[in-house]
Design brief:
The protein has helices at about 5-10, 15-25, 35-50, 65-75, 80, 135-140, 285-295, 445-455; strands at about 55, 65, 85-90, 95-100, 110-115, 120-125, 165, 170-175, 180-185, 195-205, 205-215, 230-240, 240-250, 255-265, 270-275, 300, 315, 325-330, 335-340, 345, 350, 355-360, 360-370, 385-395, 400-405, 410-420, 425-430, 460. By secondary structure, the chain is an alpha+beta fold.
Length: about 475
């Protein structure tokens, strides 16, 4: 019988019922085979694994689930602008979760961006800058909406740079792909103290050294010995979202080195860019720009635990030295401090303000004044011909030359000074000649390291 004739046949109600029963029986799925307990457990585990979405930062291996990203986003600034949508994606190159936001912003498709490594949150508006097409003749003739302050997304020029992250120390940074990177853990001692841990970036003849340590680590860090030259302040750089002065070592009109460093409650960082051969090196404008980009990329990761870099040490804070400026520093509590007020009469005239620290035979003298003051600083009885430069020290947030006196291989005096438009500070370390004979004067490695730690604590503050 042909198909056309079948369609034309009027079926009885019974025939329809029987045909329907046959069709349903044919279409019903077969009963699934019964799973063994172990197979059922494996199937459930696989389903749970598929249900958990994980994004992995390919540079650091740090992981974050989608549920964790949602929780962080809801606690951050994203949901202040609008609710989260269900649509989301992982970008393992930048180490970020992207969750769309339900915000009515013409020409934009905003997303909440969650950084997997440092758990920071930001909004990427993804605006095209074009107005949507009018939906009616009235809309076409309407005035365009007034401009708003909504930011237009700009590409991050270093988003694709490799990233270094230290979960133990709680920081991360990016560096250009043209630089090689090496973690330095076994470094030779400096001035009798173990050298701080460091990361070394290298590009051709340039070396960028990043030193870091925790407050409880008794390691040495800082500029060390460098070539001759003058240290200039050349604008500022951003480090951990804080603007800091950028110091440049200049010799014969050429930039030889760049320094920046800072101390935080739980971390101390020092960054230095130099050439392998300081005598012939010159840091180019392009290298300056990359230095600025690298420092600006530094971020904190995880949870920071505040630590005192000088546990058990006392704090000295001067009275106002210049309008709105005072001087503060830390010193070990077993040192005795004697303070002299500015204007105290001495054989050479009114003296500057002075704080003198004494411990055993050692005397550390801090003199400070406003540059325009008529007061006189006490000078050490040392001929200028015996002074020699011995590297640099970190003092008032910048590297300064360290001057020493060496007599028959004995180091007898150390001097450093700081000068700007508001303050002049001189610090010198020696031994009390009324206690120890001149031919026995010798500053030990331990006391020199302690002086460096005191110098590094100097800050200018608002009284």
């Amino acid at each position: 019988m042909s198909i056309q004739r079948i369609i034309g046949v009027k079926l009885s109600a019974i025939a329809v019922a029987l045909l329907g029963a046959l069709v349903l029986a044919a279409c019903s799925p077969a009963e699934p085979p019964e799973l063994t307990p172990s197979a059922a457990a494996e199937q459930q585990a696989a389903a749970e694994q598929q249900a958990v979405e994980v994004c992995v930062d390919k540079d650091t291996g740090t992981q974050m689930t989608y549920e964790e990203a949602v929780a962080i986003a809801e606690d951050g600034l994203c949901t202040d602008q609008g609710p989260l949508k269900e649509t989301h994606a992982c970008n393992d190159t930048t180490g970020t979760w992207w969750i769309d936001l339900d915000i009515d912003q013409p020409g934009c498709a905003p997303a909440c961006v969650i950084n997997i490594v440092d758990e920071t949150v930001d909004i990427n508006w993804r605006c095209t800058g074009a107005l949507p097409e009018p939906s009616s003749p009235d809309a076409a003739s309407a005035e365009p909406p007034a401009p708003t302050d909504t930011p237009t997304a700009t590409p991050d020029p270093i988003a694709d740079w490799p990233k270094y992250a230290s979960q133990a120390d709680g920081f991360a940074f990016r560096y250009p792909p043209t630089w090689s990177i090496e973690l330095l853990t076994d470094r030779p001692a400096a001035d009798g103290a173990p050298a701080a841990r460091a990361v070394l970036l290298t590009q051709e003849t340039l070396q960028l050294l990043i030193e870091f340590k925790r407050p409880d680590e008794a390691t040495a860090m800082g500029p060390g010995s460098l070539a001759a030259g003058t240290v200039e302040e050349r604008g500022g750089v951003i480090l951990f979202e804080r603007e800091l002065p950028k110091h440049v070592l200049v010799d014969e009109g050429k930039d030889k080195a760049i320094f920046v460093g800072d101390r935080y409650p739980d971390l101390e960082v020092y960054i230095q860019l130099v050439g392998e051969d300081l005598a012939s090196a010159e840091i180019s404008a392009a290298a300056h720009a990359e230095f600025d980009q690298i420092t600006a990329s530094f971020t904190r990761t995880g949870t920071q635990t505040e630590q005192d870099a000088y546990p058990g040490w006392a704090t000295y804070t001067s009275s106002e030295v210049a309008p709105g400026v005072a001087l503060t520093f830390r010193y070990r509590s077993d040192w005795t401090l004697t303070e002299t007020q500015a204007g105290t009469e001495t054989p050479t005239g009114p003296s500057t303000a002075m704080a003198v620290l004494q411990h055993d035979t050692y005397v550390l003298r801090v003199q400070y004044k406003y540059p325009a003051d008529e007061t006189t600083m006490v000078a050490a009885d040392v001929p200028d011909s015996l002074l020699m430069e011995a590297g640099t020290a970190w003092f008032v947030n910048r590297p300064v030359p360290r001057l020493v006196v060496v007599d028959e291989e004995r180091l007898t005096h150390i001097f450093v000074n700081y000068t700007d438009d508001t303050l002049l500070v001189n610090v010198d370390l020696s031994q009390d000649p009324t206690i120890i004979a001149d031919d026995e004067l010798d500053l030990s490695v331990g006391i020199r390291n302690e002086m460096d730690k005191i110098l590094a604590s100097f800050r200018l503050v608002t009284p």
